[in-house]
Amino acid sequence: MSEYLPEGKLILTQDNINTLHSFSLLSDAKKEGKILEARACVCDAEHNLIVDLGIMKGIIPREEGAIGIREGTVRDIAVISRVNRPVCFIITDFAVDENGERFAVLSREKAQQRCMKNYISHLVCGDVIDARITHLENFGAFADIGCGIVALMPIDTISVSRIEHPRERFTVGMDIRAVIKSIENGRISLSHKELLGTWKENANSFCAGETVAGIVRSVENYGAFVELAPNLAGLAESKDGVKAGQQASVYIKSIIPEKMKIKIIIIDTFDYKYNPQKPKYYCNGNHIDRFLYSPEGCSKLVETVFN
């Protein structure tokens, strides 16, 4: 297993658990510079993180809390927000406090620096990676791509079917796959829709004559777009009382690949509270150069090319 995983994925591994319960193994981990994880339980008044190592206390000094804290390019909220959550770290020293209790001096910054050097700096556009959602904003989702290093996934890259807010697809803490969309000045941008299948792959799950579930995504003068899957929507004729965001039951009239269209009839709608499920991925590889969404023979070309 790689050590450069999103924070929280190492903490319950047997190797990590065993290490936190043995001073001898902790000492070995210090010598090896091994990346470990444990729960941050307190952030003190000086913004040092107190970490529960099981057999002893660990302290991450404020300036070691994250890349950029020391230089002032990252705000202290990056440290404070880790309380009651797993943090990765390298043990840099052992010391004794004023009460004679032994504790470990830790550095999250050094773990992140190693992750950057040995993993993230080698990523290229089109690489498919593991990520974990850390927080959601109107404009996109932020995801941990390794050792607490976060990248942005803009809202328009989450799925082909448009959404109002990332919470319609993700929850904080959800483990996902993502594609490296761009790398500019060391800043990584993520995409997601290319992993959710082409128009044809999604349409193959439906047949004309079926009545299926959907979500009303937008209501226009000429009809309503209803999402049948995150990467697939159909167009229905307008119907009184239909509003964006409602759950719908729809009858599939026809599926027309050459026009990339699904014609549907709205049978009923009702208000709906989103409960995002783990995404279904059609891509199982670790890299894609090109994603062709539109079906063969369709006059409209919809694709993503990763340079």
From TrEMBL:
UniProt domain S1 motif: residue ranges? 126-193, 209-235
> Per UniProt, which keywords does this protein have?
Ribonucleoprotein, Ribosomal protein
Q: Which InterPro entries match?
A: NA-bd_OB-fold, Ribos_protein_bS1-like, S1_domain
Q: List, alphabetically, the SMART domains matched.
A: S1
SUPFAM superfamilies from the UniProt entry: Nucleic acid-binding proteins (SSF50249)
Family as reported in the entry's similarity comment: Belongs to the bacterial ribosomal protein bS1 family.
Q: Which PANTHER family match?
A: 30S RIBOSOMAL PROTEIN S1, SMALL RIBOSOMAL SUBUNIT PROTEIN BS1C
Stated name of the protein: S1 RNA-binding domain-containing protein
Organism expressing this protein natively: Ruminococcus intestinalis
